[in-house]
Amino acid sequence: MGDFGILFCRPGPGSTMEDDFALEADVVDALDFETHVIDADFVVDGEPEHAVARLPLDAGALLYRGPILSAEEYEALSDALAERGATLVTEPSAYEHALYVPEHHEDIADLSAPTRWTYGEDIDEAWEAAKELGDGPWLLKDHVKSAKEHWLEACFVAAGATRREFGEVAEALLGYRGERFERGFVIRGFLELAASSVRTQERRIPDEHRLFFWEGELIAHAPYHPIGAPLTNTAPFHILGGRIDSPFFTADVAFLLDGGWVVVEINDGGVSALPEDLHPRHLYERIRG
Predict the structure, then answer these.
(1) Is pLDDT above 90 for 289?
(2) The pTM is what?
(3) Shortest CA distance to 115 belongs to which of 267, 271, 265?
(4) Is residue 201 scored above 80 in pLDDT?
(5) Which residues pair with residue 35 across a beta bridge?
(6) Which stretch, 9-18, 25-34, 169-178, has highest mean pLDDT?
(7) What domains are defined for the chain?
(8) CA-based nearest residue to 267, from 136, 141, 97, 124
């Protein structure tokens, strides 16, 4: 890939959004990448033209790093950039492909949990889709994101759950995701994962790892939670580089309790947070090549 800059999408003054990119911005500056910063609030509020108004004309190709945007928000940002002679390294179609489960599940179905999905907020329809996977347990999310921080309330549905119990979890998910609920429900069959030695009040933390792929190559990885050991053998995971039609994406993988591994999630690389044990310098040096 030719020369490109980094486009950080960060909250502006007075924003309620969290800024997760301060350290990355410092590292990128030290590596002499051309960098630009736009106001994330303008982007999510439907005003991308205001967000990019101060960018120089003809800024060229830019790699997005910022909060999760809907496919529509990302495409609107792409259009606003195009008006100023700039392009996104990850095109809107590639962004959508990596971010939304129904867009990429077929490409990794043999490496992930059994999955069904619906469109819209109809919980009865989600219940029927879940029953196609058996009697549970199940995990619920929308097409992009879960509420796993509220594991028992809004993510995990126990085996043998009734329609009412399933509906309570689905309603909680809708409540937590609010206006950011994306397109419909995704229901996954629950798989027993190998666990770390750490647990929360609700569950034991799995042995999970985040892998960064750039132009089809695995370039960086680290334990998803800062309590695990790094991978010593990445060879099994290189196959993923050719599965997802995007220049920059992440795969969260976990080891199964009875052996083997599974893809937990696929995400766009531009919106994926770096695990604590992955220093931004290592990632950006590999991206630069």
Answers:
(1) no
(2) 0.96
(3) 265
(4) no
(5) 6
(6) 169-178
(7) 5-89 (no CATH), 114-189 (3.30.1490.20), 192-288 (3.30.470)
(8) 97
pLDDT digits 0-9 by tens, 106-148: 999 999 999 999 999 999 999 999 999 999 999 999 999 999 9
Tokens of 164: 């009412």
Residue type, 258: D
